[in-house]
Amino acid sequence: MKKKVYIANSIPKYVEEYIGRSCDYEIWDGSSKITREELLKNIKDVDGLIVFGHKIDEELLNAAPKLKVVSNLSVGYDNFNIEAMKARGVIGTNTPYVLDDTVADLIFALILSSSRRVVQLDKFVRDGKWEKDIERSHFGLDVHGATLGIIGMGNIGEAVATRGKFGFGMDILYHNRSRKLQAEKELGAKYCSLEELLRNSDFIVLMTPLTEDTKELISYKEFDMMKNTAIFINGSRGKTVNEEALIDALNSNKIFAAGLDVFYKEPVDKNNPLLKMDNVVLLPHIGSATGKTRDEMAMLAAENMVKALCGEKPPTLVKEFKDIV
Ligand code: DGY
């Protein structure tokens, strides 16, 4: 009998067909984001779940007693309760590599738009306020030749560093759990402590995964260490930053600006003070959101699912499950 998969997000038809050749499946109609309640209702008898963002915790595992594989449609897997999944013999996969360059491009969009006030000045022109030469208060900061500090030097961090080094002649600092000797050799990247990075960088890019160790890694103390001309970019997860501390840093000009693709709560609350601030560029978590990359992520998530349910090793099994497959 074929294994059964529930697909909780919309994916390209050809990816659905690929899954259908090996498994039975049902798919959420995609007209809106699936609610938690609907998700729990629809996974009662499934062996596999393809999903983005929903917490894989005791409650979900209890609702899906046959579940064996969760295939995340994202590289981040902070939605996994690893211990609970392991206790039930459920494995998890993610979608690394295929999105690295796309996310790195977006990080540079945030770097350039926040330093040169692109969004603020676009609004200025649209509002009909461009009547004479712009004032000094509208001037920005140079990106070329500046120092780029990357916290979390994984594949995406390295892709950001490559753009900074070869595209903009930037000096690269990085902070990571382990040294990246190749990046040091090829990009001249300098490994340093978090404090050294925060004190010396003009652009601080946070790319670390969200874990117990990185939750609110950047808070009041860390913003105090930054230059008052620093620009802070978050492309990881919102909870890696204390958002109140960020708001305080932007309000009190402790830093020059920020560019955010992620928020503590997503979608962001309509009354979040960040929405009223000029010195921050805000995006709705679109790091990997190009058609080509999202299609490649969907295909990789599907391959992970099919291989795992057919008893083969999935191509991108999350490292915490490596010892049980
Ligand atoms: C990921 O894949 O984790 C990204 O944040 C999604 O855009």
TrEMBL record:
SUPFAM superfamilies: Formate/glycerate dehydrogenase catalytic domain-like, NAD(P)-binding Rossmann-fold domains. The keyword Methyltransferase does not apply. Residues 108-287 form the D-isomer specific 2-hydroxyacid dehydrogenase NAD-binding domain. One of its GO terms (molecular function) is gluconate 2-dehydrogenase activity. Residues 5-318 form the D-isomer specific 2-hydroxyacid dehydrogenase catalytic domain. It is an enzyme of class 1 (oxidoreductase). It comes from the Bacteria. InterPro entries: D-isomer_2-hydroxyacid_DH, D-isomer_2_OHA_DH_cat_dom, D-isomer_DH_CS1, D-isomer_DH_NAD-bd, NAD(P)-bd_dom_sf. Keywords: Oxidoreductase. Coiled coil: none annotated. Its EC number is 1.1.1.215. Belongs to the D-isomer specific 2-hydroxyacid dehydrogenase family. This is Gluconate 2-dehydrogenase.
